[in-house]
Amino acid sequence: MSDIRIATAEDQILLDKEAKYCSYGDTVHYIEPPRIFSRCEGSYVWDTEDQAYLDLQMWYSAVNFGYANPRLNNALKQQIDTLPQIASQYLHKGKIELSEMIAVDAKKKFGLDGRVHFNVGGSQSIEDSLKVVRNASNGKSLMFAFEGGYHGRTLGASSITSSFRYRRRYGHFGERANFIPFPYHFRGPKGMTKEEYGSQCVQQFARLFETEYNGVWDPKTNQCEYAAFYVEPIQGTGGYVIPPMNFYRELKQVLDQHGILMVSDEIQMGFYRTGKLWSIEHFDVQPDVIVFGKALTNGLNPLGGIWAREELINPKIFPPGSTHSTFASNPLGTAVGLEMFKMTSEVDYGAMVMAKGKYFLEGLQDLQKRFPIIGDVDGLGLALRCEICGPDGFTPDKATLDYMVEEGMKGDMIVDGQKLGLILDVGGYYKNVITLAPSLEISYPEIDLGLKLLEQLLVRATTR
Questions:
Q1: Range of the domain at 400
Q2: Cβ-based neighbour number of residue 20 at 10 Å
Q3: pTM for the whole structure
Q4: Which of 455, 464, 460, 457 shows the shortest CA–CA distance to 370?
Q5: Which CATH number is 44's domain given?
Q6: pLDDT tens for residues 154-202?
Q7: Which of 129, 226, 251, 389 pairs with 207 at a CA distance of 20 to 30 A?
Q8: How far apart (Å, rounded) are the C-alpha atoms in residues 140 and 328?
Q9: Domain total for the chain?
Q10: How does pLDDT run across 331-368, given as a tens digit for each residue?
Q11: For residue 145, what are the contacts with CB-CB under 8 A and spacing of at least 6?
C-alpha cells in the first residue's frame, strides 16, 4: 500500500491556479490532491502521469457507450463539417428525425401519442417538464417525489430533490415537494418480501387520499393539490436502489385515480443502462412524461429533453415560446443522438446489457460472501450497487467506503502485472453505497478486472 500521493510539479501549478481562479460551486475535491486527467478510451482514463484507471462510473452514467466511442465521435465530426450551428428557431433534419425516433418508440411501447422537446441537459429538461405539468394542471406548483430522489440542482429541480442541502441557501422558487418513502427493501421493515414491502409503501401513500384531513385531496371535487409525482424508476444518487417489480404498477393506479401525472426521470438510467431504453419499461406502466439527458449523446454534447403525451404538449396546450434555450436541439447533439439510436438498433443491447449485468452481479455476490462489510448487492442490467457496512453487515459505514475510493485513486494496484487505479462513484442515503455504472461496452475480462480491483480495495479496507 502506497503513501499519500504527491502531485507532480506541473499538476501542482495547475492546482494552484484552480484554487485561485475556479469556482468550487461545481467541484468536489473527494481526494487530495485531485487528479488531473489527460485522455480517455473505452473503459479507461489516464492522468497526466499516464497512469491508467478503470472507470466503473462513466461520468455518472453519461458515457454509456465507452469513452471516445469511434462511431459516435465520427458522427460529431461529420456534423461539424456540414451544419454545426443553427438557431433553434429554425429547423434541421436531426431534430425532426431524433424526435420521431423517440416518439415512435414511445408509441410502440406505451401505446401513447406524444412529442419531444429538447434542452441542453438533464436539470434544464426537468425545468421544462415542470412547466408542462404545471400548465396541464392549471398552475399547480406542488409535486410528489421520493425520499432519496435526485432530479438536479437548478432552482426548480432542487425543490423536488430530496436533499435539503441543495436548496438550503437558496430557498424555493415555485415548486415544492412532498417526499414519499421509497421501497428501499434492504433498510425496510424486516419480515416482508420485497414485493410485500412495495405494496405497503403504496398503501401508505394511498392513505393520503382517505380523507381531506391528510392535506392533499378535496373529496368534494376529487381534486388533488399536487400536479405530478416525479420518480426515478431506479434511484440514482440515492444509491441505485431497485424497487420491487409490482411497485410502480400499483403506484400508478393510485395516481390515475386522482389525476396525478407520473414523470419518469430517466436522466441517469436511460439509454440501456438497465437493459431497456427507459428503465420504467421494466415495470409495466405508462408514464405521462419522460425526462432524459446524459447518455443520449454519450457525453459528447449537453443535450437532453422530454417526451410528453400529446394532450400535455401539443401546440395548442404548449404553444411556441413556452420555453426556450439558445442551444436546445442543436445539430451537433442531435446528430450524435441519432447515431446512438442507429447503433443500438443494430445489436440487441437489451440482451447484451442484461447478460453482462448478471455476470457482474454474480461477481459482486461472490465478494459479498467473502467480505462481511458488504451488506447488500443488487442490480438491474449494468446499474449495480454494493453497500458498504460495519462488521454487522448493516450499519452504514461511509468512512470505509471513502477510504476505498481514495485507495482506488492512488493508481497503485497490481493485477496480472499491470498497475491500475479504479474509479468508483459514491451514493446512497448514508453515502456508503458504491454505485456501479460501467460502460455498456465493457468486456467480460474488464468486468473480471473490476472485480479483482474491488477485491483488493476490500482487503485493504478490512486489514488497515
A1: 9-68+348-463
A2: 7
A3: 0.97
A4: 455
A5: 3.90.1150.10
A6: 999 999 999 999 888 887 776 789 999 999 999 999 999 999 999 999 9
A7: 129
A8: 26
A9: 2
A10: 999 999 999 999 999 999 999 999 999 999 999 999 99
A11: 151, 160, 161, 162, 177, 178, 179, 180, 229, 230, 231
